[in-house]
Write a structure and sequence with these properties.
193 residues, alpha/beta, Rossmann fold, two-stranded antiparallel ribbon, 5 helices, 32% strand
């Protein structure tokens, strides 16, 4: 029997967002525990003026949820999967989100070249292997503004902590939910001597 589209609601603050999902795209039919944990860890760090990157957006839940918190900022959402990008665009429209952009792309390589972010938030595709995970971390560091932070979630068995430490020179565990850990790294401000 063929599985069909399903939708679910997500409440953030006083807003209820609805997300349409399809089989084969991450978060089919429900919010996953890792994304929930990540959002709970990130929300206290979001400011109204920020530019945020949702890296590996899937159906667009992280980007749509955070866009409502950046009333004077914007969110960019990237995914390599064309079906995910179409669903993310559809979910932005469904929820009336106007300060977000969805980009089909290979991690950050297809974003405008000088675009920089205050926050990069990602529930990376850990099933794609360590090389892809490392690319997510390195490219997140590259597109952050000095003083910006990356928040990423993974299950305990992955070496995300070590990768973030290597790329940023710092990492801290900011949340733990069930089998998931959320890590934060900050892009250091460099002296301009």
């Amino acid at each position: 029997m063929k599985r069909r589209e399903e939708s679910f609601d997500y409440v953030i603050g006083d807003r209820t967002l609805t997300f349409v999902t399809q089989p084969g795209v991450f978060s089919y039919g429900e919010l996953d525990e890792g994304t929930q944990c990540l959002l709970e860890a990130v929300v206290p760090h979001v400011r109204p003026h920020q530019r945020i990157l949702d890296l590996g957006t899937g159906v667009g839940l992280i980007g749509a949820a955070l866009a409502g918190l950046v009333s004077r900022g914007e969110v960019w959402m990237v995914d390599v999967d064309v079906r995910a990008v179409r669903l993310a665009e559809r979910n932005l429209a469904l929820n009336g989100v106007e300060n977000a952009h969805v980009q089909l792309g290979d991690i950050t390589l297809d974003l405008p070249p000088k675009l920089r972010f205050d926050l990069v938030v990602s529930n990376p595709p850990t099933h794609s292997g360590k090389e892809v995970l490392r690319d997510f971390v390195v490219e997140a560091e590259h597109v952050l503004k000095p003083g910006g932070a990356a928040f990423m979630v993974a299950n305990r068995l992955l070496s995300l902590r070590a990768m973030m430490q290597e790329a940023f020179g710092n990492v801290s565990e900011v949340s733990r939910c069930g089998g998931f850990l959320v890590f934060r790294s900050e892009k250091t401000r460099r002296d301009r001597r």
